[in-house]
Amino acid sequence: MQKLNSLQGLRFLGFLLIFLNHAGWLLWPTKYFDYGARGVEIFFVLSGYLIAYNYRNAEFAYDLKSSFLYMLSKAKKFYFLHLLTFLIVLFHMERHGFKYPSGLSGFIRDVFLNITLLKSWYDPAKFTFNGVTWFLSCILFIYLCVPFIIHFFRCKKWGGTAVFSFLILLLLKMAFDTFGYKMGMNPWPGVFGWYCNPAYRLFDFLLGYTGFLVLEKTNLNVSSWQISVIQCVTLVFYFAACHLFDKQWVPAPFILLTLVLIFAFTLPGGIFNAIFGNRVLTHLGNISFELYIVHQVNINLMNHTLLKWTGNNHLLVFFMLLVISWLMAEFFSLNPIKRFITKSIYKSKIFI
After folding, report:
1. pLDDT of 351 above 60
2. pTM for the structure as a whole
């Protein structure tokens, strides 16, 4: 099976967009556009695309117990780092005498939802403590659904299932986006939120999954330089659309653009193979999950100290925060560290 290294480079690009969203205030007085939303979309759609690429023909047990165990095996890879960042934020809050906005009951509720990775299901808790970990609630729910998704599409004999499913999912996504983002409709105000809800984000993943099934047999019989042109034009158009239509479009058109961008990155022989598929960006893509989990804690807890140390040099602090996040991600992605966590910590009485 062909290795799609360039997609790991794209994964790192998605992280950079998120980092710019959270630390961009160091560079510009206002956001250039909502980098974070687009980066998160890349994560979800790319996850669906790669799961379909790797496992579309795999034999998966799809009962509830097997799905739960699959989800648990994935959660073990990031739960320790999630818990560590949660405790760091908790310690920081206690040290600075922070009064919780929603009182003691709200504090206990949000601690529970963070520890159990359920906070995205309850909208007021979605950005509590390490705010970016709302993503973990969504990806955990997606992992629970993955075996069923793989089985469903593997067992369908009708050739148009993928196309039909993709179109239905896109129409539903557009409808939900219109109701939620344009009309402001909320089925459960004060509890439900569109942006972070795992059931809603499942649509992004499914569009990536079915998008691969629709596109997998597409073969562009063109030269390498033509592929390079297609890739560059697609990337430029993607960023231009994000800039021009950020406030006009609902998320669904950006999901379509993300899928086109992913497909362009997979075209063999183009310039993106060299730029985004090189060893450095491929490695950074491989540790992008760790980068994602640690980066906002670093930004929130270190920016004041670093600005003071550097004489309020915003540009330098921006790069320092990026490098610190990178070093932390490198540390927690080291195989000895991973083995220690999975073989020592998870087997200790703390996690029994």
Report:
1. no
2. 0.94
